[in-house]
Amino acid sequence: MRSVVGVFKSRADAEDGAKQLRSVGVKENAVTLLTPHTGEPAKWVAKSDAEQPGMMKTLGAVAGGALGLGIGEGLATLVIPGVGPVLAAGMIGGAVVGALAGGAIAGAEENAIFPGLPGDEVFIYKDALRQNRTVLIVATETSEEAKEVRVLLERAGAESIDSARRMWWLGLRDVEREHYNAAGGNFDRDEADFKRGFEAALHDGNEMEERESRPDTWNDEAFQQGYERGRQYAESAREKQTQRS
């Protein structure tokens, strides 16, 4: 089992995509939607009383970085540091937002619904939300279902998470090349290691954890410089969000 993620330019397009998923038999509790908060309820969210205990349970799993602002039927509004208020729609939306805020999707029920959500993609979700885009996450049971869901999301206008990652890096690449070369480096030669370090700094772990998890790469100069630039990037995003708040 794995999760398929689509990034949409608008919440309306994402909601239409969610409706199409339901029309081909994807279960409602297999879908979650994350979107910058607008104060409007998500049209596609299930509203059964049976879902309330699940949402309350997952909101309790939200880690310290997120501040709960409110909860409705099947949805919650939470603040992600460096991003701002985010509407999380779906039975375990609160738990997913908690993971984006630095925690984890906790509990057997949550892990069973949303397996295989890669931790190294979290910063891409955050970047999409900062750009007022909407993220739709779908848990699939088989590889065939994953392929079907991926095609359906693309037809609905979604950008794949891999494409979103590429576009995110292209938006930063020229600035990082100039900075790295000005310090005496060779960006064209070292880009892959630099990018790994940059992304590692955005995974919400601390430096010691990164050192322990990457013993073979941590001492690489390009990786270290990328890590430092990634930390600066993350701090700048938090400062910009604070100024907007």
Note down, in words, how this protein is organized.
Helix content is 51%, strand content 16%. The protein has 245 residues and is α+β, with helices and mostly antiparallel strands. It folds into 2 domains: 2-160, no CATH class; 183-244. A hairpin with a 3-residue loop joins strand 3 and strand 4 (75-80).
DSSP summary: helix tally? 10
- Estimate what percentage of residues fall within beta strands: 15-25%
From the N-terminal CA to the C-terminal CA, the straight-line distance is 38 Å
> Please, what is the average pLDDT?
75
Spatial order of the strands forming the largest sheet: 3-4-5-2-6-1-7
Count of all domains: 2
Helix share bin: 40-55%
Contiguous runs where pLDDT drops below 50 for at least 5 residues? 41-73, 104-113
Compute the CA-based radius of gyration.
Answer: 18 Å
Main β-sheet description: 7 strands, antiparallel
Structural class: alpha+beta
The tally of beta strands, per DSSP, is: 7
Report the order of strands and helices.
EHEHEEEHHHEHEHHHH
- Large-scale geometry: globular
